[in-house]
UniProtKB/TrEMBL annotation:
GO terms for molecular function: phosphatase activity. The keyword Plastid does not apply. This is Serine/threonine-protein phosphatase. It holds the Pfam family SpoIIE. It comes from Streptomyces aquilus. Residues 168-383 form the PPM-type phosphatase domain. Transmembrane segments: none annotated. Keywords: Hydrolase.
Amino acid sequence: MNRFVAAERALRTAAPHALLDALRAALLEQYGAEDVELFMADYGLTVLQPVSVLPHVLEPVSLYNSPAGRAFGSQRPYREDLGEGRTRLHLPVSVRGDRVGVLSVTLDGGEVSRQCEPELLEIADVLGREVVVAERDTDLYLQARRKDRLTLAAEMQWQLLPGCACTRPEFALGAQLEPAYAIFGDNFDWAATAERLTLYVTNGMGEGIEAALLTNLAINALRNARRAGIPIADQAALADQAVYAHYRGRCYLSVLMFDFDLSTGRAVVVDAGSPQLLRLRGGTVERIHFDAQLPLGMFEETDYVAQDFHVEPGDRLVFVSDGVHAVASPKGEAYGEAALARAIHSTRLLPAAEVPRAILRELTGHRGEAAADDDALVVCLDWRGRPAGGGDAGLSL
């Protein structure tokens, strides 16, 4: 049995809570590693939290100015020279583009680390998938992501999300919500098959638990309709009925819905509320307007009509909730379309997964020291398109 297979088997046979212990033992035995640590990205994407059991013995490390943070941001291995011939490899841990954290492995000898790097990078990939599976049976990894305590509403919202990033040959997605530890109403959802990508960007009304309950009802109603194979306009109508039946118009939810054909870039869209879309094409940022329709649940049995939309390879689409475009500065000036366009243009060289965090940092600077009084949601979609005759580009997510 070669050493990679031995490490992979150790991960696949370990108890969910013991993945790191099993991997550490395998890497010490098979690769001569001196130390092995796993760090998870926190919900706010500001630090990497160590995965360990109490009492915690390691401190969080910054996502912005640490060797592990460099590996996370670039999604490439980063080699740290520790002196005396020792090297620490920081390896990105991700699952289909969703960045989970960083695996740090200390080895004796720079040449040894170079020889081991390709295999260790594959092991980090296996670890990411095992962590996602293990989260069904243990709280360890979800607890490790918490720099602070989540509010109950935020707990509900994070559990509802599909992830924070996704990569396929045809597209790359990234998304982030703020305040990460106290969100309540905003949400995003996506799902892909071999031929289509469905994307929802929602802006829920209200605060706290009530906002989270409203969003949970609407998102699950949309998913139920989508998974039944129902067209996007009818998905909106059925979710509208579910929300109205429960709240009788007292509460409602804004949503921007897209159904993309992966082979052509053609999409059908339902715009039911306040989320906005800006497109970066050929260096120019412009706001895209759709036919405005009623939010879900405002009135009984609302009919929704889908309209056509088309994306081209190289397009970047940035979706924002009103907690972004309507945020006021200390002088009362709204962040607005012009500031958003500047932020999108200034982040044009970043990968899709990095863009939401970067835009939200600029938003924080605009808002100043005042605490956020609304959720802020940013979703970035980079459209690559499918080459002619490319056929089936992959399995569903």
